[in-house]
Amino acid sequence: MGSARLARVAVRTGQFRQDARGICPRRRFCCKIDPMRLITYRQDARSAPALLKEDHIFPLSSLGYPDAISFIAAGPEAWADAQVQLAETGPMRLAPLSSVQLDAPVPRPVKMLCIGLNYLDHANETHAEVPSVPTVFPKYPHALIGNGQTIVLPRASNAPDYEAELALVIGRAGRNIPEDEWRDYVFGYTIMNDVSARDVQKATSQWTLGKNFPTFAPMGPWIVTADEIPDPHNLAIRLSIGGETLQDSNTRELIFKIPQLLAYISKMMPLSPGDIISTGTPAGVGMGRTPPRWLKPGDDVVVEIERIGSLRNPVAAE
Description:
Blueprint: H1 3-12, E1 37-43, E2 46-53, E3 56-59, H2 68-74, H3 76-88, E4 95-96, E5 101-103, E6 112-116, H4 120-125, E7 135-138, E8 144-145, E9 151-153, E10 160-161, E11 164-170, E12 186-193, E13 196-197, H5 198-201, H6 208-211, E14 217-225, E15 236-241, E16 244-250, H7 258-268, E17 276-278, E18 300-305, E19 309-317
């Protein structure tokens, strides 16, 4: 029996914790052969999703997935089948990761929601009242860039700031999600830098304009599936510029944890596969420093999150 056949039999007989139909009983990605990293890459002006294998890319377009959302929405059996194909494909048959440019892992999410003031120390440094419910604001796809792409500082702002954040990716459609079922709805995790024009953000009570300049949502470098991160509430998170550490915390300090965020947001709106929820930033932002430390041309910004990796972006003037 071939290796692909053996792997599929193993999936269906429970070796990878799926039921007799080949579907994970809890409908989340817990059934795998090797660790999975989902990326979106750009090559010859074409954008496409892929899985990583030893620093090489396995294009998912070969399996009929035109973008990351279509793969995420396909569900656990499709993810397991893709892992079988990945395991059978030697890296010598694949293009090296270094030969392509990384876009944001989900370049066009239906929804990209960010949580403000979700670390107590960050709320204190900004002299803001600690929220009694999550503070939610949108970012839009035009702001997304990938690892290595440039953050462009707009002429319209004199106070561009950085924010290291853990972002989660929705894997299953849901509304009114119970807190104790939150894991069933999370496909995986990635890194976000919620770049913010503080003068524009603070000009009114609405934050949207200050958060949505082009390139103000670096994300990546990839999505790590949820099974690889048993506890997303215990991850070291850091941001450095030019080697100087400016933010250094742990996701255990989140005020509203992921179960609360999913339950609260899904009461107000449905969540869809590929939606992004960025969980907030810890203390150390430029606005909270004396004097303020704004982003400037020539900066090299690196966000690191334990078990995920690092997101690096240079900075330039518009």
